[in-house]
Amino acid sequence: MTMNHPLVNRYVSDFNNALPQLAPAERAEVVSEIRQHIDDAMAAGRPIDEVLQALGSVEALARAYQLELLVTPRTSAAPVQPRSDRWLKIMGLLALGSLPTFIIVIVLGTIGLSFTVTGVALVAAGIADSAGALPVWVRSDIAPWLAVVSGVALTILGLLSSWGTIAYLRFVGRLVRRVVPSRASATV
Question: What residues have CB less than 8 Å from 59, skipping those under 6 apart?
Answer without folding.
Answer: 18, 183, 186, 187
